[in-house]
């Protein structure tokens, strides 16, 4: 399972948890403006916007999981297993292989308005990257500081939904996720009033009772509601540290601990990493299951006019700050 969310304080933040039982070998990858992107069906793009995100690099190609570009657009791919269907190559459209979707959007869009225009002519094609890296069944959240959309390629076509909560998890399809929020409209960060019966002396005996009913399990629909509630009510100061800290707390509400979600005999899904992009400033923050310290890579500390990928390893291992030795 995975969860993505947006957050606005002074700057705009976007990130995700990546939950899985193993890692593909991830790195923080900056693609500078003059790296030549080879697209299988539309040729090469030699000059484009720079981008940064988490990716697996194969054959010198950045296979992004989540990323942002220098213009303030961010995107994340999350599992959509059993529902994602990609097409055969078609004429009169832009055929983009599923693994090219993130570079295709981020290389040329400076806003969600431009993303929507581009999506009018796309056909997401079922070409795998290679035999070793077959098709991933994903759906995507794409955001700028003003709005978010969800993109789902299914058997009956490509769906582009406004995403007014700015969150995404996995199955079921997005309209069903949104619909179930109706069931939780009574939830509140405030203490409840007794509307049950005026004849009973009911007592709000504990703090937090306005949220009773918020689902606590790890299913995708429960995480959707939980992170939506947390994000909508989250409050922080406007400074970078306060905002980043708060962002990690929001996604912390859907963190997966080893042992709680068994996916095969003795195999457990865990939150491998959590990312937080400051989309306004081009800084990619992350922490991992084994390393709670927040690490960061600043896109603007690099030469963005270069033509080679710039890769940073994910720092693992808890960094414990001993105070007395
Ligand atoms: C496994 C990841 C999604 C995690 C997730 O959503 N978990 C939920 C589990 S569940 O179903 O809901 O139970 C996805 C997100 C991005 C994916 C990667 C990216 O799409 C980039 C390439 C694409 C290639 O086709 C396959 C390898 C790959 C490197 C993908 C491997 C894997 O499918 C990733 C890493």
Automatic annotation (TrEMBL):
Record carries keyword Hydrolase: yes
Pathway recorded for this protein: Lipid metabolism; bile acid biosynthesis
InterPro entries in alphabetical order: CBAH, CBAH/NAAA_C, Ntn_hydrolases_N, Peptidase_C59
Name by which UniProt lists this protein: choloylglycine hydrolase
Single biological process term from Gene Ontology: lipid metabolic process
Enzyme nomenclature, EC number: 3.5.1.24
Pfam families with a match to the protein in the record: CBAH
Catalytic activity: taurodeoxycholate + H2O = deoxycholate + taurine; cholate + taurine = taurocholate + H2O
Choloylglycine hydrolase/NAAA C-terminal domain boundaries: 2-312
Enzyme class: hydrolase
GO molecular function: choloylglycine hydrolase activity
Organism: Blautia obeum
SUPFAM superfamilies reported in the protein's UniProt record: N-terminal nucleophile aminohydrolases (Ntn hydrolases) (SSF56235)
Family: Belongs to the peptidase C59 family.
Keywords: Hydrolase, Lipid metabolism
């Amino acid at each position: 399972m995975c969860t993505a969310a947006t957050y606005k304080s002074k700057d705009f933040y976007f990130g995700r948890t990546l939950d899985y039982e193993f890692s593909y070998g991830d790195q923080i990858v900056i693609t500078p403006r003059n790296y030549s992107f080879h697209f299988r069906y539309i040729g090469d793009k030699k000059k484009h916007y720079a981008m940064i995100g988490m990716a697996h690099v194969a054959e010198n190609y950045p296979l992004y999981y989540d990323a942002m570009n220098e213009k303030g657009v961010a995107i994340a791919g999350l599992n959509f297993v059993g529902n994602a269907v990609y097409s055969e190559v078609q004429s009169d459209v832009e055929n983009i292989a599923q693994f090219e979707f993130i570079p295709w959007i981020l290389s040329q869009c400076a806003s969600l308005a431009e993303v929507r225009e581009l999506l009018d002519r796309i056909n997401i094609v079922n070409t795998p990257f290679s035999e070793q890296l077959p098709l991933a069944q994903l759906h995507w959240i794409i955001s700028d500081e003003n709005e978010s959309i969800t993109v789902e390629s299914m058997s009956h076509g490509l769906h582009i939904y406004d995403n007014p909560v700015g969150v995404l998890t996995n199955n079921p399809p997005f309209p069903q996720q949104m619909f179930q929020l109706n069931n939780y409209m009574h939830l509140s960060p405030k203490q409840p009033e007794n509307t049950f019966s005026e004849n009973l002396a009911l007592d709000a005996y504990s703090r937090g009772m306005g949220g009773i009913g918020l689902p606590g399990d790890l299913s995708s629909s429960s995480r959707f509601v939980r992170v939506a509630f947390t994000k909508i009510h989250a409050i922080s100061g406007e400074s970078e540290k306060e905002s980043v800290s708060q962002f990690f707390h929001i996604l912390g509400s859907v963190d997966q601990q080893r042992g709680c979600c068994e996916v095969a005999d003795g195999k457990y899904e865990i939150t491998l990493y959590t990312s937080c992009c400051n989309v306004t400033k081009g800084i990619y923050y992350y922490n991992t299951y084994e390393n709670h310290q927040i690490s960061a890579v600043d896109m603007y500390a690099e030469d963005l006019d270069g033509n080679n990928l710039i890769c940073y390893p994910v720092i693992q291992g808890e960094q414990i700050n001993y105070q007395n030795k």
